[in-house]
Amino acid sequence: MSQRPTITIPDAGMLATPRTRRDILKLLAVGGTLVLLPAALAACADDNGVTQPQTRQPNTGSPLIIDFAKGDIAVLQFAYALEQLEADFYTKVVNAFGSSNLTADDKSVLQDIKYHEVIHREFLKAALGSANDFTVTPTYPGVNFNDRRSVLTAAKTFEDLGVAAYNGAGQYIKSTDFLTLAGKIVSVEARHAAVISDLLSPKTSAFAPTAFDDVFRPSKVASAAQGFIVDKVSLNNAPGTFVQGPNNNG
Q1: What is the domain range of residue 230?
Q2: Nearest-angstrom CA–CA distance, 156 and 185
């Protein structure tokens, strides 16, 4: 039986003296030493799962139903939908590098984030298995992939939403293994959010504007994400209770 590839986070000493934003992002993917499936590595190389540019309007496609009666599976499906959206977005950003006005520093950071999001997507896909797999159809109304501010503003929207989504959904996860996975992913999504904010407003408090990240209930996340998804997202049997986070805005 062949040994599966691993990704190992660099020595903690590296964090004491990060030289660039990209050094920070070299914490990679979902933290710790992670066993990666070959499909995840292949997806990073060949942009597997990327959609073609979309002109369709959000919320006009076929139903995409996530049934919370499935418990942890539904929470993972919820996260998987968001990771598909993020992976697709960043791949389109990278594919437009040749015609965009992004800086060299921007491109280095966004390339790394793209790899992280593809790994997140493929890891969740493997965790769900074929029986619970589905494909999201993204669309990006108002996003100009050739314009730096448009790209970074959209990226900030996706990253902030992703952090709030994981923070909110964590309270519904029963499996300690799945909770650990979600915790590792959200820690990286938070790094993404911070570095994107710093690209937009360097050397300001935008890097860490609040003491606590947002915590959103699934319905609030789905409503926000729907603006970038052609499929009609429906959360069946959504949890009736929700514990607010410190910002009390979920």
Answers
A1: 6-236
A2: 16
